[in-house]
Amino acid sequence: VQLQASGGGLVQTGGSLRLSCAASGSISSRGPLLAWYRQAPGKQREVVATIAPGGIGNYADSVKGRFTVSSENAKDTMYLQMNSLKPEDTAVYFCRADIARTTYWGQGTQVTVSS
After folding, report:
1. Does residue 75 come out as left (phi exceeding 0), alpha (psi in the -120 to 50 range) or beta?
2. Which stretches of the chain are assigned E, i.e. beta strand?
3. What is the pLDDT of residue 3?
C-alpha cells in the first residue's frame, strides 16, 4: 500500500484548502482506520483527524468546527477540507492508514498559512 498526499499550498489567514490522500491498491474493503497528522517545525507530529470505517470522523480540539475529514471508498481516497485556516495550522500534513495492524504513511504535503 502506498499513500500519495496532495493539495497543500500557501493560503492567507481565513482561507481554505482541500487535501487529498490517494491509496494505491484497494484498501477500502480492508476496513482501514484513516487519519491526517501534521508536524510543524520544531514540534512533534500530532493527529488532526481520524475517520473509521463507516465514515465517522474525530478531530483534534484545535481544528474542530473548521476541518472536515471524509473518504471516498470507490476511489480509495481520503480528504481533509480545511476552512478558516490560521497561521498555527502551518505544517506538513501526512496521511496515515492502519490496516490489519500495519501502518502506512504518505509522504506529506506542506500547508503554509500567512498572516
Report:
1. alpha
2. 3-6, 9-12, 17-23, 33-39, 46-51, 57-59, 67-72, 77-82, 91-99, 102-105, 109-114
3. 95
Note the pLDDT tens digit of each residue in 33-50: 999 999 999 999 999 999
Greatest CA separation found in the chain?
42
In this prediction, residues 98-111 reach a mean pLDDT of 94
- Cell numbers placing 47: 493527529
What CA–CA distance (Å, rounded) separates 50 from 87?
A: 22
Closest by alpha carbon to 84, among 62, 55, 59, 106? 62
Provide the 3-class DSSP secondary structure of residue 103. Answer: strand
Query: In this structure, are residues 17 and 11 in contact, taking their beta carbons and an 8 Å threshold?
Result: yes
